[in-house]
Amino acid sequence: MFLPYLILLFAWAIYPLAIAIVTSIQSSRAVPGGGIGNYLFVINEFRFFPALLNVTIFLAIYLPAMLIMVAGMSLLLDSIKTRYTVPLRLMYLVPATITGSVAVLVWYFMLEPTYSPFAGLLAEIGWTQGTDVFNRENLAWIFALIAFSTGAGNWIVIQYGSLQSIPDDILEAAKIDGASGFQTAMRIKLPLIKKYLVYMLILAFAAAVQIFVEPYLMSSVPSALGVANDWSLNQLAYNLAFRGSNLGAATALSFMLLLLCVILALWVIYRTDFFDEAEIKRKKKEAKA
Amino acid sequence: MTTAAVRRKKILSSNTPIGKSKEALAKVSKWVILSGFALFSMVPMTWMLLAPSKTQPQLQQDAPLSFGTFEGYITAWNNLALFQDARILQWLWNSIWYSALQVSVATAVALLAGYALAATRMPLQKPMLIITLIAMIVPAVAFVLPIFVQVSQLGLYNTAWAIILPGMFYPFGVFLAYIYFSSTIPKELYEAARVDGAGEWGTLLRIVLPMSWGLVGMLAFFSFQANWVNFFLPYMVVNTGEILTLPVGMGILFSQTPALNPGVGAVALPIRGPEIALAGLIVTLPILIVFLASSRLLVRGVLAGAVKS
């Protein structure tokens, strides 16, 4: 029963991992010695540091925005009567369906002043032409906005779900003790959903550090041409592989990103109690049986 | 919050007139923020729904969220079909049959593996579970470049299989199924089936599966969501237009038509804003329908095992 999955696991996770390691130490024209040289080549590549900086700035905008908005909005949503939240929740889910290449398309039109429904707002900050918006300084903000709009609503609804599962007796006890709605939210509800928020941040970080499609497609926009080209680390890996035909350095870079995500995954599994609860539930069942 | 708790809150806080007006103010600002964010959430989708109804000049000059004509959609579609002999139909068909195959195999495999992990005695159960968790947290994008090297070695480069096969690996689904089979289905059921002499397969197919259609729906939902919009992998492993999928086709429309960049592509090609918005709509509508129809599955799935809902 486990065999089909085991085959897929080997074929599309373990084998690629082995390939990444082997290819990343292969010799190439740029690094005849191969080995660790490929890793050093990537780190010393002139586009590496700017790309790392870009992705770091993007993460520094995107992750705090996610944390604050998702925590705040889900607590707010939880503070009103359940039946009124149904249409709100459905509306929050809508942007999550606009992902990947479509998200880039839609947000191009949302931000290009000629088309934008927010043109008035953009004009307020002095942006009246495409070149005012799609330029080097703004790209990290634009990608953070796209990532945020795709992920936030989704996660607000999910965190709302976890808030709804807080036992009523805890909340009633707080009420009897005289806690206000705000105090209950900050002192009781927030700590109880903290680990789900951490889990969300880890997943968001792992996905965001791999950003590719947004900057790649944005480089088709005239004013971002040339600026969005080697913008992210994954784009650099792609360009090293296909334009620089340096597969060793490309896989070295992609293996470093992969390793970062694996370390994060191990941290979630062993250092947080996110997956413990599932285990405890299972153990309880077993103990009963 | 229970209705009883809400009622109690009302009684407690409306005792004084100051409490009353303060509470009203808090309530109003809550609703302003909540519905403001809801409206903001709807803008991009609304724009995309309306854009194909207009012509390119209307798109630039009329109010951004205004409606053109119903004929606009037909015109936009006809224009879109001019791109490389209705290539978009090929992309649409590819996306449909690739993801149908991926969703059915991924769902079946995840169901079996989750069941094996949760309900049968198998060697290395714990390490397998840990590996699955790691694979589930690491985003699929991280494997794209090594998979590219791999499919080139296997001679699958530039075939549909290079897109389809990796999408069948679905560790998140295995974990969901594992949680479901180990916490929702009572342990006694497996034991009773075993006592009655039903084998593992018989227990799963005849007893457990008929109780688990909710799980099957959830597995199919998340697998569809991941595969339908996948961009990086198909883009890397295929470079022939006929084999590509809709999301990558969108990228081609970006760079080879005047849609975003008036200077690009054949001058006569009438693919502009309305046409590319229609293409985006074709990618998005299936997910939107699936999403809204099963929003409860989403909440139950992502925090599986940790949250009841």
Structure in words:
- The complex is a heterodimer of chains A (289) and B (309).
- With 289 residues, chain A is mainly α.
- Chain A has helices at residues 3-24, 37-44, 48-78, 82-93, 100-111, 119-124, 130-133, 139-164, 168-176, 181-208, 213-218, 233-242, 247-271, 276-288.
- In chain A, helix 1 (3-24) crosses helix 13, helix 3 (48-78) runs antiparallel to helix 10 (181-208) and helix 12 (233-242) packs antiparallel against helix 13 (247-271).
- The model of chain A has no long low-confidence stretch (mean pLDDT 89).
- By secondary structure, chain B is an all-alpha fold.
- Helix content of chain B is 70%, strand content 0%.
- Chain B has 16 helices and no strands.
- The model of chain B has no long low-confidence stretch (mean pLDDT 87).
- Classes of the chains: A mainly alpha (289), B mainly alpha (309).
- At the A-B interface, helix 1, helix 3, helix 4, helix 5 and helix 8 of A face helix 1, helix 2, helix 5, helix 6 and helix 7 of B.
List the topology elements.
The complex is a heterodimer of chains A (289) and B (309).
Chain A lengths: L2 H22 L12 H8 L3 H31 L3 H12 L6 H12 L7 H6 L5 H4 L5 H26 L3 H9 L4 H28 L4 H6 L14 H10 L4 H25 L4 H13 L1
Chain B lengths: L2 H11 L3 H34 L5 H6 L8 H12 L5 H33 L5 H13 L6 H10 L6 H5 L6 H13 L3 H9 L4 H9 L4 H16 L3 H6 L8 H11 L16 H21 L1 H8 L7
Helix pairs in contact in B: 4-15, 5-9, 5-12, 6-9, 9-12, 10-11, 12-15, 14-15
Short synopsis of the structure:
The complex is a heterodimer of chains A (289) and B (309). Chain A is mostly helical. Helices cover 73% and strands 0% of the residues of chain A.
List keywords for this structure.
heterodimer; A: 289 residues; 73% helix; globular; B: 309 residues; 16 helices
